[in-house]
Amino acid sequence: MSACDHKADIVQVAFTQKHGRKSNQVAEKTTKTQKTLDRRFCVAPMMEWTDRHCRFFHRLLTRRALIYTEMLTTGAVLHGDRQRLLGFDPFEHPVALQLGGSDPKALAQSARISEDFGYDEINLNVGCPSDRVQEGRFGACLMAEPSLVGECVAAMKDAVKIPVTVKCRIGIDGQNPDEALFAFTETIKRAGIAALVVHARKAWLKGLSPRANREVPPLDYGLVRRLKAAHPDLEIVLNGGIATLEQAQAELGAVDGVMMGRAAYQEPWRLLGVDPLLYGAPAPVGSLKEAALALIPYIDRELANGARLHAITRHVLGLFRAVPGARAFRRHLATEAVKRDACAAVIADALALVLDSRSDLAHIAA
Q1: Which of 194, 218, 293, 322 has its CB surrounded by the most CB atoms within 10 Å?
Q2: Are residues 322 and 357 in the same domain?
Q3: How deeply is 110 buried, as exposed, middle or buried, from its count of CB atoms within 10 A (0-12, 13-18, 19+)?
Q4: Burial of 103 (0-12, 13-18, 19+ CB in 10 A)
């Protein structure tokens, strides 16, 4: 047995003795028994961030949130390594797959394949403003083609039994959002959409970078609230600029759900408050450190399957805020997890640098 294996085993035994079960049994408590999807709180699809390692980690922090994959193009789904691209751990449920494309037939085929993999929802990307996405005629540029989006939704809906949803902007370039968003919604609603996620900003396809498009165009929550008032029978989720759970909770009075993006990824400690605050359910673990310890069996398994430690631990760097040792925790992972022989003992050592306290939840309300 290597030193890495020995140290990881010690950490696992300690966690088991403390909680009376193997930490991988935590993963068995999923929400797979849900009959319908609850979109009250969602973690946004984010390119290069919400991969399967990130989603597994996020699920350790919240059992109730609906989490989304990175966007996958229809070309990738139809012609790529499907197991690598679409495979996910059952613990991630409920999990939605976001697709990018504009060919109804290709989207229908991709949706059917994705349903067979076990996803709980298929979401069509009509919000990404990148040049590469525009060149492929999908993403935010489809806001200018609502009829085509309606055809895409209808084709996917006919192909699968799981919900088909759309994530869009309030408009693009010179469009008047008060007109464009409402007309767009009417069209895709007739196609049978299950829910609409609205990023409450315009997307400027000419003149702004994708990063600037996430920050520069002003937010218009009022428009999304009016959209919901006009369509009380359509589930509408608000996205864009949601930075705290308290803000999310406040918006739930006017919309059906909220979607948090960068704040959830960069400050994942926030997710430990989702179940108690928004669902009235106990947090899945008692502290942030317990959540990190519960990740160790997953790390061991993924490393055995050829993953690199940094591919997993890069998602946990923001786990601790205002906790003594947080900076040392980040520094240790940043320097040690990238090494070729890095193992689960690296995260165990990093956690040892953080104050051992069961009051990690206290700062969530701050």
Answers
A1: 293
A2: yes
A3: buried
A4: middle
Closest CA to 232 of 202, 196, 260: 196
List, as one string, the DSSP characters of 30-44.
Answer: -STT-SS---SEEEP
CA 216 – CA 78 distance, rounded (Å): 35
**74 residue type, one letter:** T
Phi and psi at residue 106, to the nearest 5°: -65, -40
Q: Residue 16 belongs to what H/E stretch?
A: helix 3-19
pTM (2 d.p.): 0.89
Are residue 126 and residue 238 in the same domain, yes or no? yes
Let me know if 4 is a catalytic residue.
Answer: no
Residue that is last in its domain, among 231, 248, 279: 279
Residues 207 and 324 in one domain: no
pLDDT for position 361: 45
DSSP code, position 1: -
Q: Are residues 339 and 222 in the same domain?
A: no
- 255 and 167, same structural domain? yes
The domain in which residue 140 lies consists of 30-279
Position 7 scores a pLDDT of 53
pLDDT, averaged across the chain: 89
Q: From its phi and psi, is residue 171 left (phi > 0), alpha (psi between -120 and 50) or beta?
A: left
Q: Domain count of the chain?
A: 2
The answer to whether residues 21 and 57 belong to one domain is no
> Beta partners for 163?
none
Three-class SS state of 198: strand
List the catalytic residue out of 4, 42, 54, 128.
128
The Cα–Cα gap between 38 and 55 comes to 17
**Cα gap 246→264, rounded to integer Å:** 13
How does pLDDT run across 49-91, given as a tens digit for each residue?
999 999 999 999 999 999 999 999 999 999 999 999 999 999 9
